[in-house]
Structure formats: structure tokens, C-alpha cells
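Most newcomers find our protein records easier to grasp once they have seen one. A record pairs a protein's sequence with a compact description of its fold. An example says more than a description, so a record of this kind follows:
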Amino acid sequence: MIIGGFAAQAQAQSNVTIYGLVDVGVVSERGGAAGSLTKVTSGIGGQSRIGFRGTEDLGNGLSAIFTLETGFKADDGTLDSTNTIFNRQAFVGLKSKDAGQLTIGRQYTPLYLAQSQVADPFGAGYAGSIKNLFPSAGANTRVSNALVYSTPVVEGFSGDALYALGEQAGSNTAGRQFGFGLNYAQGPLNARLVYNNKNNDTAAVGTTPAKVQDTGRTTMFAANYDFKVVKAYFAYGANKGVNSSQIPVANAYGYTVAPKPSLDSNDVLIGATIPAGNGSIMTSYIRKNDKTVNNQDADQWALGYLYSLSKRTGAYVAYAKIKNKNGAGYTVGNNNEAGSGDKAFNIGLRHSF
């Protein structure tokens, strides 16, 4: 939906688009310590959301832009994050045809955009989500107080740079985050090389002393190539430091000794989408290699099918299974939830507007 300005001049120079997604279905999870769980839930393939996106022509190829986007749960109508309004995205910026784009506010990281847009045939959703094993939790997905610059596209190449302030009194580095992305998209090939660095320090507050920790660092290469009869996907990530390989659920399997987040790991994904009828088959294999002495590796196999009822509406089914090794504790979740066990089945419906 496009909403013009009230004045004739505003109508000619600016517009606001209302957009969104409603995704709801049934999830059945098995294998966790709490037992089997079947539920109606929201955001399985992509989080249900409503957003407002606007542009204003400032002349000479320069535009002002903004995005405000909130997530909600279609199963019960509540916000997906309490005490927030535009928790998914909230930024304003300037866009130039020749100079690129600069935005300020709450935004996606280059790491997560590469995972969801390039690396994963499941698009970071459904039971087969890349988020189950690759580092995508919290600020690895989106970060507040961020400045993001994106270059113009030249011969298929472009770049992104993110810097987010930690905003902790007494320290210029505690909590800060930065990342980079080098992108190529032309013809059937889409590839990205990204780096993400999160400072885990906390500044002193009153009588509570400062806490100094190692940074969390991830470097990832992702690519997909469309052969028409099949679209092939590949991703490789190297993760080092604190919070570089978070475990989404602290101890989902009730082990006597809880799983330990790896401080040194590699991730590999191989996948494909295959056109089939009026939809496409999605499949992937992901392996996490924990290189510490704990050797808590994990493998995930996933298969799904997305059927297009129209350009905006689709029905889906997906299944994934994780094999944890040596006390690892990874779970099969989806786009919006971390999951509760090592197996999950999804069936649902999604509509974009």
C-alpha cells in the first residue's frame, strides 16, 4: 500500500509503503528434556511483521529514507518482543545514486543478511534454518545504535560496513560491534564475504566492577548459483571468542553437565532448492565442528517444500533433525524460536502484503 503526502508538493516527492508478513502454522518438536511439544506458533518461515518504509526525493539524485518494522505473533496477537515497538528495524538515512547509502538506527548485520539472503536455502526459516547451528543469536542478527554504509553497485560488486556504539558510560569500546561485507551478485552467481566483531566487555557501574572478556568474531563466506534445474548453496564460517557460537537453549536435554558454548568452531552448509510443480523443494546439510577440547560437534539434515498458492501466499512443510555429539546441546528451531529438541516438523501458511 502506498500513502502519498497531503500537500500536492509532498505527493510528488515522497511516499510511504505499508508492508508485512503473516506466517502461522503448527510445529511439532521431539527429543528435548521437557518432552514432546506440538503447538500453533507464528514466524516459522519468517517472523510475522508489519512495517512502514518511506522515501523522499531531495533532488540531485539524493533521497531521505526510513524504515520502521515491528514483529508480532499471529497465533495470539501479541508483540514478539515485550516493551518494544519497532524491535525489528528502526532507522533513517540518506541514499544517493552515486555515493551510496548511510542509515542510522536498529538494523540487520551484514553477517545475518548473508546467512538469510545468500547462504541458506531455507532463508533462515523453517525447521532447517541456518540459525540452528550457525551463529545468529541476538546482536549477530540485528543491532541497535548502528551506523551502516552501503556502497553503490559497480559491475555486480558492492560493500557494506556497520559500526554500533556500545553506549556504556566510562568506556568507548564496551559493547560496541562492527562488521563488513563484500558482495557480488550478477547473473546466476550470488556471493558474499562477511566479518562480524562483537565486544563482550561491560563497563563498571557503581560498585560493580568492569568485566573484560574476549571479543566474539565470525568470518563467513556464502554463495549460491542458479543452474535453473537446481539452485546450489554453500557457506563456510569460522568463529572465535566469547559468544561466537552461542547455544540458543542453555540445557535443552537436561544433561548433568550443561553444554559449553564453543570458543573456536567452524560451520559448513551445503544445500539446494529444486523447482517442483508450483513450488520448490528445500534441502540442506549443516555441520558444526567444535575445535576446543570439548569437541561438541553437531550435524543437521533438513528437508522442506514451499508451495506457491499465489505471488503473495504460500503453504509449507519442513522437517529437520540434529545429531549432537559429546554433550553438545543444539536444538531444531525455526525463524522465530530456538526449539526444544533435536527433531522438528513444521506445516503452515504465510501471506505477504
